[in-house]
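To illustrate this point, we now present one chain and its tokenised fold:
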Amino acid sequence: MQTSSPPDENLIEANKHKVVECLDYYEGLLKKQPFLVGKDITLVDYFAAIWVVPMMNKLGFEDLFAERPHFEEWWGRVQDRKAWQKLMEWPKQTGVDYIWSM
């Protein structure tokens, strides 16, 4: 869904607690293991990671991520993956950038 209007700040603030709850859950998992479901990266990690980009770039949740050191480390591990780097090139190559335009 591509939109040029800015995010609704009231809606973001009203639902921020849901993001905090999810991040706290992820942080708990990542204290025990390097990826969300174990020692190896899976589609679960990529599915979760795909939402980090718009949450940081469009919703300004960088501070929520920075407060969780294990989540930050996980995010670094995901970004270091070649598959992730290729995925990040895809919108530029195709012009399809719906998820990053949220």
Notes: The CA atoms of residues 11 and 54 lie 15 Å apart. The helical segments are 9-32, 43-50, 52-57, 62-66, 69-80, 82-94. Residues 9-32 form the longest helix (24 residues).
